[in-house]
Each structure stands twice: as structure tokens, then as C-alpha cells.
Design a protein that fits this description.
single chain; alpha/beta; Rossmann fold; eight-stranded mixed β-sheet; 10 strands; binds iron/sulfur cluster; oxidoreductase activity, acting on the aldehyde or oxo group of donors, iron-sulfur protein as acceptor; iron; iron-sulfur cluster binding
Length: about 280
């Protein structure tokens, strides 16, 4: 486990992101991965610091751009386990366009969104998942818009693995992250990760009182898309578990073939004539 601990995390004491980092570290150890087998790519926000705190390869990229970066890394090297991570503002605000296309593209990466319903790093503005009526610095009379619903959006956009976890339920989160990492294709794991400093409404206690655990619900079928959408809607999206999963070829299998390991696996020695031809084509 020590190998995956790079530096002391600097989040506020009690921040939900600590649990996500701990769960990810423990799952990597459980899966027998070494730090050099994994790359963690993050966007901007408090949760974006995870790529610095996590002891694997890391890439702290631009705001909202963790997904295109992570997909590029995976396509270049199929042997890396690639994790994209960030917050709700990063992923469902500026990064929303990338999110929809990542869902339908099905590149074999895991996307963990630490969803606290607020912008924490910039000290408390309404985010895309803030509930209607929530009072913040940018919504003093209450948020007027409906919140983004990432689970439903992901399923409708074509994601092949959609799950939700809660920082206050570490064991369930570990299981979900492990299943998401083992899933072949794009996996979204939205984690309710409370911001204890700026969100005094959606607290650990609030989530504990309101979450419906669909993993434990008798008869819930994660392979039935229509019923999953219906049941998630009935809980107002405040549910946890592996909510939807389907088996379909990952992007690299569909495009390159299952045996292609990516461009970094190509031999480094490119014959001079071939290189010249490539350069000529590039210049045209
Ligand atoms: Fe966590 Fe909120 Fe503190 Fe950011 S401001 S580290 S999200 S508790």
C-alpha cells in the first residue's frame, strides 16, 4: 500500500475525497497492480489533486480535460490501467462535452467523479449537480436550475458501466471501484464525496439518511436499461450500487483489434526511408 502513497493529502480534514483516494489505493493493491501499471489523470478542483497524492503515474491536466487525456493515454498503451478523476464542476460543467462522447466511445478507462454538489476550490459556488434551491455565493436566493443527472445521462449516452458510491461507505466504494476497473470499456463511478467546508446541506448525515442502496434491493437488474433508468429516477438519483452494466467491445477492440497494445508498443527503430515518407506526408 505504501507504494501508492506519494504525499500527504492536503484536503480539509473530513473531506470525502480522502476516502476515494484510500479506496483507490487499496483496490490497486488488491488487484496486484504496481504503481507503474497505473496512470491517474485528473482535472482542476480540490478533487483534481488526487493525481498528485496517488503514487502511480499521474497527469494533472486542464480544467475539464481529464477524459480526452486519459482516453489518449489508454489508446497509446493498452497495458496501462487508466483512471480519470475529478469533481462535478470539472466533469459535468466545462467537461460535459467530453463526458458524453466518452460514454458512447467506450474506451477502457475508469472515470471517478467526486461529486460534492459545489465548487470547493473556489470557495463555494453552485455546481452543475447542486440541488434546486441550494443557496451559495452565486445563488444567494437558491439555485434556479434543475441539476445535471450524470447517471441517467451516462446510461442514455451509451456508457457500459454506471455506478454510484458514497465516501461514507468505504467497503461498498472499494467493491464498486474494483468492478469498474475490471470492466472492459468505459466505467463511470460517481461518488458522493461531501465538501465539509462549503456544503452544509449535503453532508455525510444527509447522504446517510437519503441514499437508497440498489445493490441490496431484491430484484434490481443492472442489465435492464429501462428499469435501471426508472429506478434511479424514483430515488431522485440518490442511490448507490452498480446501477447499469452491459457487455460490448471496448473502443480499441472495435477499432484496432483485441491484440493491438497501442503505439507505445511499436518498435522504436523506424527505418530511415519509412521515416522520410512519414515526414513528407506530414509536410504536405
Ligand atoms: Fe474537500 Fe471542500 Fe475542503 Fe475542497 S473545500 S478540500 S472539497 S472539504
Amino acid at each position: 500500500l505504501a507504494d501508492f502513497r506519494f504525499e500527504k493529502a492536503t484536503w480539509c480534514p473530513g473531506c470525502g475525497d480522502f476516502s476515494v483516494l484510500a479506496a483507490l489505493q487499496q483496490v490497486c493493491v488488491r488487484m496486484g497492480l504496481e504503481p507503474e501499471d497505473v496512470c491517474c489523470v485528473s482535472g482542476i478542483g480540490c478533487s483534481g489533486k488526487i493525481s498528485q497524492h496517488f503514487g502511480s503515474y499521474g497527469f494533472h491536466t486542464l480544467h475539464g480535460r481529464s477524459l480526452p487525456t486519459a482516453q489518449g493515454i489508454k489508446m497509446a498503451n493498452q497495458d496501462l490501467t487508466v483512471i480519470a478523476a475529478g469533481g462535478d464542476g470539472d466533469g459535468y460543467g466545462i467537461g460535459m462535452g467530453h463526458f458524453i462522447h466518452a460514454c458512447r466511445r467506450n474506451v477502457d478507462i475508469t472515470y471517478i467523479v467526486m461529486d460534492n454538489h459545489i465548487y470547493g476550490l473556489t470557495t463555494g459556488q453552485a455546481s452543475p449537480t447542486s440541488k434546486k434551491g441550494f443557496k451559495t455565493k452565486t445563488s444567494p436566493t437558491g439555485v434556479a436550475e434543475e441539476p445535471v443527472k450524470p447517471l441517467e445521462l451516462a446510461i442514455v449516452a451509451g456508457a457500459s458501466f454506471v455506478a454510484q458510491a458514497f465516501s461514507g461507505e468505504l467497503k461498498q466504494m472499494q467493491r464498486i471501484i474494483e468492478e469498474g476497473m475490471k470492466h472492459k470499456g468505459f466505467s463511470l463511478i460517481n461518488v458522493f464525496s461531501p465538501c465539509v467546508t462549503f456544503n452544509r446541506v449535503n453532508t455525510y448525515e444527509w447522504f446517510k439518511e437519503n441514499i437508497v442502496n440498489l445493490d441490496e434491493e431484491e430484484g434490481y437488474d443492472k442489465h435492464n436499461k429501462a428499469k435501471a433508468l426508472q429506478r434511479i429516477g424514483e430515488t431522485d438519483s440518490v442511490c448507490t450500487g452498480i446501477l447499469y452494466q452491459e457487455d460490448r467491445p471496448a473502443f480499441h477492440e472495435a477499432v484496432l483489434g483485441a491484440t493491438d497494445r497501442g503505439t507505445v508498443k511499436l518498435p522504436l527503430e523506424i527505418p530511415q526511408a519509412e521515416m522520410q515518407s512519414l515526414m513528407d506526408q506530414f509536410r504536405r
